[in-house]
Specification:
The protein is built from nine helices and no strands. By secondary structure, it is mainly α. Helix 2 packs across helix 3 and helix 3 packs across helix 4. It starts with 8 loop residues before the first helix and ends with a helix.
């Protein structure tokens, strides 16, 4: 019996909760996550003959889901108005604010007490979402495609129609902005809470 014959509606439906949790982690929106899972299950059902069983069913489905999520971010990146990344936005912190003329950190980034523990806290993810949403749309989409969807740099460049140099500038600025926002909104507050406890 071939692996594709083992795919039934019930078998696919049993994987729905795992797929939904994965999609929700990536998309942070239950309606979008539900749509991505629906598209994944439909694609799996339609291409059941292509499932040879070389990988586990869940691995195969998550592979399809990753493509659906990447498709979502590609559409979002195309629909977003591209900001001029070579020109600073009003009020945007420039790299000169982070470094002194010798190239060393201007005060340097602060040490985060326990970043691993922060990742497990729901409040952290709420703050992270606020910080991510504060990024310009194109910058946020490029960052998501690379860091959360897991596309390679050259794939992100193709999808977002960026040169390699522009890609690295956007990623650098996105990381600086996210770090600054998380320091202000989460890590400094966490340290202050611990000191007052």
């Amino acid at each position: 019996m071939t692996a594709s014959l083992l795919l039934t509606e019930q078998t696919l439906a049993a994987q729905r909760p795992v797929l939904f949790r994965y999609a929700l982690l990536q998309l942070r929106d239950s309606a979008l996550a539900d749509d991505a899972v629906q598209e994944t299950l439909l694609a799996a059902w339609q291409s059941a003959a292509g499932f040879e069983g070389k990988a586990g069913l869940r691995t195969w489905l998550i592979g399809i889901l990753k493509h659906k999520i990447a498709d979502h971010w590609r559409r979002s990146a195309r629909e977003a108005v591209a900001p001029d990344v070579d020109r600073a936005d009003d009020g945007e912190a420039e790299e000169d604010d982070y470094f002194i003329s010798s190239g060393h950190w201007n005060g340097g980034p602060k040490a985060w007490a326990d970043p691993e523990a922060a990742l497990k806290q729901q409040e952290f993810w709420a703050i992270y979402e606020v910080c991510q949403n504060s990024l310009p749309p194109k910058m946020a989409n490029v960052f998501m495609l690379r860091e959360l969807v897991g596309l390679d740099a050259d794939e992100v460049c193709r999808e977002a129609e960026l040169s390699e140099a522009n890609y690295w500038v956007i990623m650098h600025r996105a990381r600086l902005r996210l770090r600054e926002c998380l320091e202000i909104r989460w890590f400094n507050n966490t340290l202050q809470d611990k000191r007052h406890a």
